[in-house]
Structures are given as structure tokens and as C-alpha cells.
Design a protein that fits this description.
alpha/beta; Rossmann fold; 5 strands; globular; DNA binding
């Protein structure tokens, strides 16, 4: 399996690759400058484990790149990073299938934390696995906090973790529940009685 970094800006691509190689020295990291090279690269380097995708590429722009990747590899995590502020593009990217959104203005520590969190979540090591059909303690906490209307920043403050880690926790929660948004997660929780034990 390989991690694919798709970005046409060499410096940014190298920065992402450097972080990934520090986090996962044994993983094969493949660099691409266009999305249309992906299929051929997968043939040569193997099934993807993670995509790190720039929103603006020579052959795709905006969420179209995310949609293209998820169409071919629906079960593979996608980390999107962009020069656009999260307020402008994050929600659209998540709806398109991205798992986390990283602003290019983020410092190296933030970038590292976000990618580490996503890799750990995909490995199942971010927290102890929950019994089949049940939520973990952290996921139960998150449902309660979503019900209170807390923002990611509020949740991060209460749990004393970074906002990026909150996003990864939410991603795992959404994946567990089979939903794509906070609203859908709360609807699922209410209709399945997941909130009744929290009150």
C-alpha cells in the first residue's frame, strides 16, 4: 500500500512528503503533480492507504478532485489542503467525501498533528476499539457535545486536544454511524436512542 501526495507545487508537496515520511518511515509515499496520473501510479505502486490532495491542480479545481478520487477509491481517507480558508471550502470538501481539511497557512506542527491523527484513526489506534455496534467513550462524548451545539473549537478546548484531532474524531464517528455531517449524526443518535443515556 502507498500514500499518494497530489500537488503541482513542488515545495508544498515536498513539505507534505517530509511530514509523512517522518510519521511513517516504512510507508511508500508517491508524489504526483496531476490527478490524471493517479491510475497509472496505483498500477505501479499499489493500493492507496491515504490521499493528500491539493484542491487546485492543473487538471482539476475545487471539490471535483475530491469527487474523482472518492469515485474510484470510496473507502480510502482523503486529506485535502488548500490556500482557501476553511470557512470557504471545508464544508463542501467534507460533503464531497474528504475526511479532513488543512489550510496551507497551517504551521508544520498543525499539519503534522492533522496527518498523524488521520493515519492513527485509519489504523484504528487513535482510541481503543469499541465493541461492535457500540460507540467508544470518546464517540459518546462527541455525540453529547454535538447535541449541546458546541463548535469544533469548543470541543477541542473541553477535551484539551487540537481542532484537527477533533475533526479526526468526528470523521471516525461519522464513519461509524454511516453519516456525513453533524446534522445527520444527531438525527441518527436521536432516532437510535444514543442520546437517551446521556441525559
Amino acid at each position: 500500500m502507498s500514500i499518494y501526495v497530489i500537488d503541482d507545487h513542488p515545495l508544498m508537496r515536498e513539505a507534505i512528503v517530509m511530514v509523512l515520511r517522518r510519521l511513517r518511515p516504512s510507508e511508500n509515499v508517491v508524489e504526483l503533480d496531476r490527478l490524471d496520473k493517479l491510475a497509472n501510479a496505483v498500477e505501479h505502486h499499489g493500493r492507496p492507504k491515504l490521499f493528500c490532495l491539493d484542491l487546485k491542480l492543473p487538471d482539476v479545481t475545487g471539490v471535483s478532485g475530491v469527487l474523482t478520487v472518492k469515485e474510484s477509491y470510496p473507502d480510502i481517507p482523503v486529506a485535502v489542503y488548500s490556500a482557501s480558508p476553511a470557512a470557504d471550502m471545508e464544508e463542501a470538501c467534507i460533503e464531497a467525501g474528504a475526511d479532513i481539511y488543512i489550510e496551507k497557512s497551517s504551521g508544520s506542527a498543525e499539519l503534522t498533528a492533522a496527518l498523524r491523527g488521520l493515519l492513527l484513526a485509519d489504523d484504528g489506534d487513535l482510541e481503543p476499539p469499541a465493541p461492535t455496534g457500540k460507540l467508544s467513550r470518546r464517540q459518546t462524548q462527541l455525540i453529547a457535545m454535538l447535541d449541546q451545539g458546541l463548535s469544533n473549537r469548543d470541543i477541542a478546548t473541553q477535551l484539551e486536544i487540537s481542532e484537527h484531532t477533533v475533526k479526526v474524531h468526528l470523521w471516525r464517528l461519522f464513519r461509524r454511524l454511516g453519516v456525513k455531517s453533524r446534522t445527520q449524526a444527531l438525527h441518527h443518535a436521536r432516532s437510535h436512542g444514543l442520546l437517551s443515556n446521556l441525559r
